Structure formats: structure tokens, C-alpha cells
Amino acid sequence: MELVALAFLLLTVTLYTVFGGADFGAGVFELLSPRTHRKRYRTLVSHALGPVWEANHVWLIFAIVVLFTAFPRAYALLSTAFHIPLTIMLVGIVLRGCAFVFRNYDAYKDDSQELYSVAFGVSSILTPLSQGMIAGGLLLGRVSTTPTNFYEGFIAPWFNIFSLSVGLFLVVLATLLASVFLISEEGADDVRDSIIRTARIISCAAVPAGILVFFTAHLEGLPLTWSFFTNPISVTAMGIATLLLWALLVTVKGRRVYLPRVCAAGIVTCILAGWWAVQFPYLAVLPRTDADYPFTIYTAAAPYSALQPLVIAYGIGSLLVLPALLFLFWTFKTRN
Residue 46: CB partners within 8 Å, gap ≥ 6? Predict the structure, then answer.
């Protein structure tokens, strides 16, 4: 039952990373766009995100519910050790949502729209950056249940160059998703060609960003390279992601619409699969001197009496939510 709950959790995180990541990446894409096309890009992003931008946060809510219900010890530990980046993430989500609404639906169009757009772009970087730093902290193993000072308990787990590199990598992946998803949103050839060029550049930038993660892991004393390349699932996931990256570059150059989206989503999914394969079965890697080590899905799981109704409720909820979301995307993204 722990594995079933974990499968639901990982599925939810994947969906949030792909769809929510594309939303955050759209803000980064707009912020870094050339000034000559910035106004057009702003309109494009607003049109693309308008119908669906808040719907993707349902995956974040699902993930939190599964974590604190199925793995309460992990939720208590992680929400305490990472409460600073979690707060930054939540502030970014709220600030981004407010800025998006105010700049698009404010009754008065004046210079404040520029401030809203800057806030929208900056918070779009801040949120995935903090999420990536949390993910890096989970893998690095500096979370402790018995901290001796504030720095050891609340700063050291996530504030380091490895976690920062993971955060930057997630920002790049989010921007890649957004640039690929936005190709079909624009009809003008000049702007569309610019989006395609940007998508190809970001696709290539994802490679050095990923290499940076392994390099900084070595600097922090984390044997990530050894763990990754000795794990058959991680190696397979990297191989598939590499092939999908090549396919993405080819299909984007060929001005395809749906195939690049599948490739981009597949790349992100493979990267997540490689990470989970390295970390499994640990929910949080703790120092080996910690009294509660190891902190796995089995030692942190709730009793069966809590897991069973959660799995049933999640299964029923998925049958209701997934078709509704598919209908939402079909309504606004496949018809003019």
C-alpha cells in the first residue's frame, strides 16, 4: 500500500512539473524575450495561460495531501526543514497569480502594467527555483531531525550550490516546456520563427544545465554520478531523454506542433524518473549519523488504516478530475 501511495505521489508531481512547469516557464520566456517582440509575447502568454493557468495547481494540492496523509513523518520533517524555500515558493505562486490577474483585468491600463509584468516574470523564476532547491536538498542529505542550531536545521539542507544548480536546471526545463507549448499559440510567422529559435536554444541549454548538477554534486561531496550511472533505471531514463531531446530539435525545426510537446514532456518525465530511481526508497536522505536513519517510504508511512481510504479516495478523485481537466484542455487548446 505504501508503494501505491508513492505511485500516486510521483504521478502527481510529474503532472505538476510538466503542466505547472510550462506555466512558470511562460513567465520566464516572457521576461527574457527580446524587446522588439515583448508586447506580442506578453499577449501570447496571456492568451495561452488565461483559460488553464490556475487549474494546474490542483496537482500541487494533491501532492501535499498525499504526502501528509500517507507519509506524515516525512511531511512533518520536510515542512520544517524546508519551511523557508516552501514559503518563498508559496509567495511566488501568490505574487505571480496576482500580477497575472491585475495586468490582464485591471480596469485602468497605465504604467503599473509594466510592474505587474515584471512581478509576473520574477515570481515565475522564483517559484521553480525554490522547488528545485527543495528537490536538491532531498537528495543531498543534510536534513536532520536533531539540529543543534538554526543554520543546521533550516539553512544547510537547501542553501548550497548543488541545490541551487538543481533549481536553475528546473527553471531551464520549465522554460523549455513553455517555449515548445507556445509554438502553436502564435499564427504570425515572424513571431513563431522567433519562438522556434528560442525553443531550440533552450533545448541545447538544458544539456550544460544538467551537467552542472552533476558537477556541483561532486563539489558538495554527493556521489551522484556514481549513483546515477550504476542504476539501470536512471541510465535508461537518461538514454531515452537524450533521444527525445534529439527528436525535439528535429520536430521543432520542422515546425511541428504536437510532437515537440510530447518530446518535451517525455524529457522532463525521464529526468524525474532518473532522480526517483536514485533516491528510492528514501523520501528524505538523512545523515548517516542521524538516529532515525534510514528515512524510507516504509519507516515514514502512515498505518494501513490511513493508507487504504487515501488510495481509494485518490482513485475515485482521479476518475473525476482527470476527464474534467482533459475536457478543459481540449475545449481551450484544440479549438479556435
Answer: 100, 103, 104
For the whole prediction, is pTM greater than 0.85?
Answer: yes
- pLDDT for 33: 75
User: Do 171 and 132 meet the contact criterion of CB atoms below 8 Å apart?
Assistant: yes
* Residue 294 zone, left/alpha/beta (φ > 0; ψ -120 to 50; rest): beta
> What is the distance between the terminal CA atoms of the chain, rounded to a whole angstrom?
44
Q: What value does the mean pLDDT take over residues 117-139?
A: 91
Q: What would the mean pLDDT of 82-98 be, rounded to a whole number?
A: 92
Matching residue, cell 551522484: 224
CA–CA gap between residue 128 and residue 92 (Å, rounded): 9
290 band by pLDDT with thresholds 50, 70 and 90 = low
Assess contact for 73 and 299: CB atoms under 8 A.
yes
Distance CA(2)–CA(189), nearest Å, equals 50
How distant, in Å, are the alpha carbons of 44, 223, 330, 332 from that of 336? Answer: 14, 50, 11, 8
Query: What gap in Å lies between CA 39 and CA 146, rounded to an integer?
Result: 51
